[in-house]
Every structure is written in structure tokens, then in C-alpha cells.
Amino acid sequence: MTDGTLEPKNMKRNVFLLAICQALFNTSTGVLLAVAALVGYTLADDKSIATLPQAFQWVSTAVFAIPVAFMMRRIGRRVGFAVSALFGFVGALLAAASIFQGSFWLFACAALFFGGFTAASQHYRFAAAEVSNPEFRSKAISLVIGGGVVAAFVGPEISKWTYNLADEWMESEKFSSVISLIFGSSNINLNGNIFGSSYQFAGTFLVLSIIPVFLILTILAIRFQPVQSEKFDEPARPTSTIISQPIFIVAVLCAAIGWGIMVLMMTATPIAMKSEFGHHEVDAMFVVQWHMVGMFAPSFITGSLISRYGLLNILLVGLLLSATSATTGALGGTIEHFWIANVMVGIGWNFLFVGGTALLTYAYRPSERSRAQGFNDFMVFGVVAIFSGASGWIQSVMGWNVVCYAVTPFIFAVFLAVLWLKLSPTAVPVSLKGRAVQAGK
Questions:
Q1: Cα(346)–Cα(295) distance, rounded to whole angstroms?
Q2: What's the predicted TM-score (pTM) here?
């Protein structure tokens, strides 16, 4: 191939900056994981739709997935990432506005903007693969995703630090006057300090709007390949040929179900801890924090594990960890049960997402990259939207145990798919089944 990726300049510097971008993006994600379900639960009259805004976010992510992929190819990664950061900025401000107004549906609208932000941010891992040589590619993907470990601490800490911050701000006559002018005094509560109100998280989203600014500054420092420099030795195949490959199907299944299981359990966790088992919001934030550690911390070794033990073997381990998480969650409702279940599902997600991304790079030619990546994210986040929307309903109507039981058939089905790929003599390169895997080589 001659797409400019075999001998990238400043490879490790670019990967490091992309990891920072991933960390900044996942800081926003960490805040959303920590508080979005709680805000939705408070704003919604019907508690069974409390997680609908998060489902909207994933629907939006799926809808934007293909357009974003083609936009990135036409105008370049730098502009595409910068524009998506502006979506995050607008989404955060709208979320704050929805809380001041007490509007559930405006909060859902804000989630649509976060979806656009998320769709483009999924390409940080693809960008890492593009700026790396084949020998470094699995590790580059892993390290960039691993940048989220910073967010595991920063995101929930922002949630804790800004908890009730808006109430304190509202005690200022100037601040409350500005809010009254923007939203109308009849639409907000000027008394402040109302415990249990979603109003307590308005300051959280105002602070969150600052993060996309830092993200744009980091993006401008990355040296991406020029758009016009891409030339391909092999012609692109029809989309139907690409997506019908067994290796493509299994890669999508691993990422989709890895994400779906994680979102189903994580979205339900804060609601279950608060409404079903009586734990405090701060306890839920603690669990979310360690869930994100489980998601991102393994990334620093996942690439090495893939190289040593084989890509498909790591995918199988990820599925076993996800099954262990569901079993642990169903055993009890203590903080310890929630903590172990969420850490385990986070590690399982990491193995499935990093592994699925690496596996996907074998399914397309450089000339097919935009379509393959776009269709992958469209299908993955379409599934995630369904899981996220179902999470609140399952939790509200049937309870936490059913949430845990619901994921097991999906884990089993994908386990069989990966096992079939591993045992198939011609479906994948032999190197994927054992050791010394170099994604995309």
C-alpha cells in the first residue's frame, strides 16, 4: 500500500497527542456516565424513560457515524475532530440549560449533540492506526484508548466537585439574575440548595463545556497525513463485499456487544444503586470511577497481550470477563458487588473494543477505510442505542438482577462466533489465532 502510513513521521508524538485527545473526550464521557442517568431520573415524570437521553446520544452517534467517516476523508482528521469538539461544547451548554429549566426533553436534545461529538471521537483510535507502522499499530490503538484512564479519575471527580455547585452560584445575585434573564424566573428555582434535585448538576455541565476548548488546542498540534497525499495500489471493493466477510462480522459483533453489555450495565448502575438499593449518588460516582479504570487502564498492556497470546484469544477472554461481571452483579446489591461487576465489565469491554478494532483493520483495504470504519461505528452504536434505551426500562420495571441476566445470551452468542473464527482454517490469517499478531499488517 502507498497510503502514507508505513513510514509515519513523529509517530510516537502523534500517538501521545491522540491519547491526550482520547483522555479529554473520555473525561466528558466519564461525567455523562456518572450523572446523566441521575439527571434523567430526576427530570423524567416517567422513571422508565430516565435513560432515554443516553439512548438518544447513541442513536445520534450511529446516525453521524457514516457521514463523519466520509467527512474525515474529504476534509481531514484535524478539521473533523475540531468540528466535533464544538458539538460537545454546544451539548454541554444545552444540558446545563435543560437542568436550569427542568426540561427532560431539552436534556434529551443536548444528548443528540453529545452523539455527534462521540461519533467523531471514535476515530481517535483509527487515526492512531493510520499514523503508525504495522508493528506498532495494535499498541498505538491500545495506548490511545488507554488515554481514557486519566478520565477515569478526572471525569467522576469533576462530578463530585461540581455537585451542588450551581446552588452555590445561585446564591450570587448577579449569577441568578443572568440565569433568570436567560431562562425566565418562572422556569427556574432561585432558592437553591434543594437536595435531590437534578439542579445540583447544572454547574457540572457548565464546567464540562470547557473541555472541548482544550481538545481543539490539542488537535491543532497533531501532524496528520495530508488529505491529498492518499494514493492506493488496490481499488475499493463494493460495500456488500466488505461487510459480508466473516472477519468483519465478528469484529463488529465483538465491539457492538462489548459496548452494549457495558452500556446496559453501566447505565442501569446509578439508578439501581440509588432507587433499588438505597446507596448515595456519591457511591454511584465511586463505582463509575472504578468502572472507567477497568475500561481504560488495561489498554497499556492490551496490545502486548494481543501480540503475545493472539487477538482471538484476547477476545474470548474479554467475553469471559463480561460473563463474570454479569454473574457477580446478580449475586447482590452491595457497593462491593456493584464495584466488582463494573470493574470486570470495564475490562471485558477493553479487550473486546481494542481487539475488535484491531480485527477490523484486517477486513478492509486502505481505499475502503472510510466506508468500513463508518459502517462499523454505525452498526456498533446502533446496537448500543438499543441497549442503552432498554436499560432504564429493564431496571425500572424488572430490577437490577434482570439487567445482569439479560446480557448473558449475547455474550454466549459472540463467544461462539469468535470460537468459530478461531477454528475456521481459512477465515482469518493464522497469526490471529496464536501469537505475534500485528494488526493491519
A1: 4
A2: 0.72
